[in-house]
Amino acid sequence: MKKGKHGQFLGPVDTAFYMVDTPETPMNIGAMTVFDGKIVFDDLLKLIDARIYQVPLYQQKVIQAPMNLGQPMWVFDPDFYVGNHVFEVTLEAPGTGEQLRELAGHLVSGKLDRSKPLWEIYLVNGLAGDRTGVFFKIHHCMVDGLAAVELFTLLLDMTPEIGPHPKKPVYDPPGLPTTSELIAESFKRDIPHKLNMLKKVGTDLLSLGTTMTDKEKRRQALIGMAYLINDNLRPISRLPINGKNTGRMTLAWVEFSLAEVRAIRAVCNASVNDVMLTLLGMAIERYTRQIGEKTHQAFVRALVPVNMRVEDEKGDFGNRISVLPIDIPFKVDDPLERLRLVTEYTQVMKNSSLSKGLDMVLTLPALMPSLAQPLVWQAAPVAFSLLAHTWCTNVAGPQIPVYLLGHQMLHSYGYFPLNPSMGLACVITSYNQKISMTLVADAGIVPDVTELATHLQDSFYALRSAARVPAQSLEREPPKPASETPPVAETKIVTSPVVPPAPETPASVPAVVETRTVEAQAARVEAVSAVETAAPAEDRSNGFEPAVSIVGAAVGVESSSEGANGTGVTRQTGSVTQAPEPEAPPQPVSPAGKPRLFSEDWAQAYREAINASKSYYQASTRWEAGALTFIMKASARHGFLHDSAVWLDLHKGVCRAAKSIAPAEAERLSAFVIEGDYTTWMDVLAGRAQPLVMIMRGKLRLKKGSMTRLLPFTQSAQELIHCAQAIS
């Protein structure tokens, strides 16, 4: 996106999302989330007001020169006020899950007000079971999978502790441009913007050329093209989920155990996404038979968004989303055989590089005159309707609990826009060892979406049974500290139905699986170990990145393969021997006032601050995991010519020693190493970000050590940062 005096242009895909937004198919994304306890509206309003400035896009609105004489651009809203975006609604008694579902459908319908920034949040009171709903609604032109929904990341914390709100800067935006200024600036910036888009197309062509010159990649690309051409020789037939959109949206959600889904996918060497796509195809086929509609269509084709952003783009071009069409077969009696066929098809399409070609095609309209672009983008949804029946996107969230104002999030049900002629879309959301499927439907095409939800449940039972996977509870205990790892000998049989504190659904759509549950403590340990990545490795390797991330970005966390031994800390029965103090390399002279960050003086001041902190001691008395090192990558423009490291010998609430040492030495002597760049550490030290949140988002890297062993000590991490803030 090209920056200018008043703002920056929307990227090509963002422009498409903005221009295809209609009352019948509003381009809204977001989630209905459910939290335990009562969240006070005024507290939520203050929290948003205190943190919103950290993502300036949420203070900006879209403007465009008259008669489409220029590209749409972001500008700061001079009238921005958080109260214009945050609202409170109350359900009538008894506040059931069915009422929440109906409210969600009402809230998701309709376009967002374009006279202000394109987002809204609704606090939902009155839910039974002492729970609170929070509904997020954001225009798709603002966010994609890699950018994540930064508003959620800002509001959600890793611990239930509520800290003081950071001091926010004064909001003093420039005035809006006049009509003549807007037209003049649009013309002035149009050529540089098109050159930027042309550069992107050139890069895409070069990437495709590299693919075609590599023998193996070329073979995979040609196989994918053959699949695509062969499957589109005849136009697809419409299914009961296709028709004329009315804009009357409805939602329904079903929730499963992520451990069960992983067990199913392991049987066929599939991905989690393959399992969920198979369930969707089975449910749509059952729904088609239920309503008695005859079809010669042998499959349902779902468009699966693919994240195309590369790491060094730093926000250029806005949304970077492409799609791949995935055919899910009908008339396959064996659920495992159907899963195998879906897995084979997705693997071929993933390896084909077709998503690169479509990403380039979606950029080409940006090279056209601004006057012609609306015509092109309005025709694009028609093309998609001829190509596929529905959309399905995967939203990978953190596999640990997160909190809003001290209240734990229990459930997150994402939603996604509908394409014209498509009456159904599916959003797969994983969070805290559970995975849900939210069906977004147009009531004019799919009158009762809960019927499809029932078929999803039944399809899951059938697939789970075919894979011979035992049922497990959806309830999860919080991870235990490393020193209190539970034994693995006992197995407890639970015969009563499992009823988590989730929104109730109609009798025809049970919210949870009511089955005989086998719950071994050993399984809990295995489930907790899966926390080491925000998204399972099998999902990331599948190649389908989420188009929307509801609770933080799905970024893999690297961890060391070393176990308790091999960490550099000598272990003895019942005690931990203090790690040897390394030699410190020469350090730069400390500036006046406070010590230079990551210097030897800073390390010693840090040790004193830690040992003077009662809060850190109370949160860390069970820490016996070994030494911890923070590494800051070199940043010449900030005065750090080489990587810097501070080593902390932590044990049972005390910092026994601290040194500024060489990073290589730190890795050898430490059980845990956390690495990040200058900007990220500044965000953490300024209180704008939490360290474990930044690890989950990939901003900080867990270079050595296990995330599972860190999770029970989230409060310790917070107190360490508070101590660092006191001396920085």
Describe the structure.
The structure is a single chain. The chain has a six-stranded mixed sheet with strand order 5-6-7-2-13-12, sandwiched between helices. A six-stranded mixed sheet has the order 8-15-14-11-9-10, sandwiched between helices. By secondary structure, it is α+β, with helices and mostly antiparallel strands. It is built from 21 helices and 24 strands. Strand 14 and strand 15 form a beta hairpin. Helix 8 (272-290) packs across helix 12 (449-466) and helix 15 crosses helix 21 (714-727). It has three domains: 8-179, Chloramphenicol Acetyltransferase; 219-474 and 485-542, 2-Layer Sandwich (Chloramphenicol Acetyltransferase), CATH 3.30.559; 571-727, Nonspecific Lipid-transfer Protein, Chain A (2-Layer Sandwich), CATH 3.30.1050.10.
Spatial sequence of strands, sheet with the most strands: 5-6-7-2-13-12
Percentage of residues in DSSP E strands: 15-25%
Structural class: alpha+beta
- Please give the domain count: 3
Q: Please report the number of helical segments.
A: 21
Low-confidence stretches: 1-5, 308-320, 476-579, 583-591
In CATH, the homologous superfamily of the largest domain goes by the name Nonribosomal peptide synthetase, condensation domain
Total strand segments? 24
CATH architect. name of the largest domain: 2-Layer Sandwich
